[in-house]
Amino acid sequence: MNVVIVESPAKAKTINKYLGRDYTVLASYGHVRDLPAKDGSVDPDADFAMQWEVDGKSSKRLSDIAAAVKTADRLILATDPDREGEAISWHVLEVLNAKKVLKGKPVQRVVFNAITKQAVLDAMAKPRDIDTPLVEAYLARRALDYLVGFTLSPVLWRKLPGARSAGRVQSVALRLVCDRENEIETFVPQEYWTILARLATPAGEEFEARISEWAGKKTGRLDVKDEASATAIRAFLERATYKVGSVEARPQKRNPYPPFTTSTLQMEASRKLGFSAQRTMQVAQRLYEGVDVGGETVGLITYMRTDGVQIAPEAIAATRKVIAAEYGERYLPEKPRLYSTKAKNAQEAHEAIRPTDLSRLPKAVARFMEDEQARLYELIWKRTVASQMESADFERTTADIVASAGGETAGLRATGQVLKFDGFLKLYTESKDDEDDEEGGRLPKMAAGDALARRGITATQHFTEPPPRFTEATLVKKMEELGIGRPSTYAATLATLRDREYVTVDKKRLVPSDKGRLVTAFLESFFERWVEYDFTANLEEELDKISSGDLDWREVLRRFWQTFSAHVAEVKDLRVSQVLDALNEELAAHVFPARADGSDPRTCQVCGTGRLSLKLGKFGAFIGCSNYPECRYTRQLGTGEDQTEGLGGDGTKLLGTDPKTGLDVTLRAGRFGPYVQLGEGDKPKRASLPRGWSADAMDLEKALRLLELPRQVGEHPETGKAIEANIGRYGPYIAHDGVYANLDSVDEVFTVGLNRAVAVLAEKKEKGARARATPAALKSLGDHPEGGEITVRDGRYGPYVAWGKVYATLPKGKDPQSVTVEEALPLLAEKAGKSPGKKPAKAKAATGAKASTGGAKSATGVTSTGAKAAAKAGAAGKAGAAAKAGAAAKRPAGTKAAAAPKADAPVRARKAAAD
Hints:
This protein is an alpha+beta fold. It folds into seven domains: 2-130, Rossmann fold; 140-187 and 484-578, Topoisomerase I, domain 2; 191-255 and 393-463, Topoisomerase I, domain 3 (Distorted Sandwich), CATH 2.70.20.10; 263-389, Topoisomerase I, domain 4 (Orthogonal Bundle); 596-680 and 887-915, no CATH class; 711-772, no CATH class; 777-859, no CATH class. The chain has a six-stranded antiparallel beta barrel. Helix 3 packs across helix 5 and helix 8 (262-273) packs across helix 12 (371-386). It starts with a strand and ends with a helix. The model is unreliable at 433-438, 639-644 and 835-915 (pLDDT under 50).
């Protein structure tokens, strides 16, 4: 009996069918161990000794593997054909050696780039040993990520409260986004004019020509810079006569694009299908691991983590056969096309992403797949086939026109492009995010010397635009160009930036948050070398040299750690005031935008003498005055508007006196925006201005209405209990007997009557009843090993899997239609472990003890689960306490009192603690 180890249960099931009864194929479910999320997991003083830990779920799976290996004749490690796959095999082997179950049994490593019967059998016939240099490259990368994360993140926590983590690749990717935002903010539009002449040939056919030469000089697109110049040119052209100077028609070819790499697949899936990088990889994983096609489970694409663009000779031959059969010999080039990548530091160790069998046409297999799988497979198939098709042929015509008036001349140019043969464009056109205008269509027939008639002259003003924000696709492309990260890291890096709230996504564009810009500014000010693009790319190059056996991995770590650790020690000793001074300078354009009146943007407009500066508080950074506490001006970071215009030097404005109490009603500025206050004392009544209300428009009447909330609407006719109207964290609402219903606007809080309130509550109650009803199953996953059907459903708080009375929420971003039973079982087991009595007792043994999902990955400090794991270990808890104490010691006296209390302050406090 032979035991074969792969990563996923889906692969295990497929490969077991190919190998037959003499093989037992078991899944490791990905990585089986990782560095514990605590200090000391990598010890530089012990020559970077690494302490590994098996998590709870993996422990049970490893025990099953060990039990199978005990009675086996041979162990075959068949994990993925990349650095991570090699590392998983190494980890499994290390654990089995520690368990002493191998006892001299042969251990072999096999790799296959596609999960097809032929590919698997070919790999089994050519086993090898574990690639030690590849494992060492993994160890170096893992140690670097851990050391950067666990050394740098605590510095961030102490110096920048609210910042959550830093990482070797993550922070450089964030810098790209922030640098682009800086370019946009500092961009100065340049005026330019386009001047077009609409002309007609002797036959009466019209076309447009653009000014190309004026005053004896070539005139480019941006060269006519002002209205005066445009007017002069237009006046000349309106009195000029025209003739054709020359006409040149020349053929042009457009060659097809190479097959997909990981990055180009993510880019095109984003543009054409609207998939995020993470979603693209999830769907591609399913296509790679296998889909049931007519009763046979088969991998439909080759391995999807690659930066190679070449494909195997047999695949090229199959592609050419498909082209001839489906599109005809005219679309088949004489010789096969060969590609090589131009990306920096590309390894090209594996094939490009392609269908495993080109004869499986998308339309023939679509019915066996889910919609997203079918769309992605079609994209990959078309790109692969198009890459071997004939070039597209165009004819590009350029006509130079001479305009003459009063002995002076000017030049105009008209261009046209005609597709003569579509070639690969018949099947595939690559989309672009930011593409220049295409050439015009066919020009009318004309010849040199032909006189042309003027039909009209137009001069149009334009302004240059700043560079566009990155999309996920264009950021991945930029990272690849610079050699930052690797194909397997792109999706995870982008997900981390979103999860950390360092970036937000607006219409597919990545926008850095204030938190992200603060982190980047801090790192650029104090860790500039380590977030330089070249430094990160050169480090990737060294990791590649380790994998090829050309560098010693510990020597690379020694060089890095020697300078990095010394620098961290210096930054730790910086005072917070020094950090803030640097950030004030680095972020000046963003934090202190220019004022319309030209005055110093850092002068406090409330007291007139104070200096505005970044301040650090419990919930992160904000803007405050240097004359605090005499001047209480504050402003949220990222808002340039003055929230306290018209307030006194102490940051308050008297609105009037409450006629009921005789107390003063004041308007004040707080950390979270303007608020109104009744009287003074330890606990005066306060109310924040709701969204849409400006401080400028506040008066006594409005303030009193806010301070009187909650408003009593009346008694419910059925229960006799009070109905209240109020404004909460999520906007205006009414409440009755524990039921809350949203109102349409803030104004309705003050006007809603009893009849309207009862109707809104009844509608909410009806919706709630429908929501509490068991939702219909979106999908059945089959039977649980303990019996009973597992289903996927969509509930009030998102999609979940259900088994009996056990309900487990799906991870954020997980498509409910793509969930497999293998993914559902651990979720149900963990949920049942938290809710005793909901699950049969023996199911716990079948699935393993509850484990901290992703805790192992978090040694870099990149994931929130890692932070929790670190806290459990005690290390992060101590660091957090030290950071909190340091922040408290350095906070200006009375800072907290200047903030306007919010109804959700406890929630904010809990969130800050969790961060």
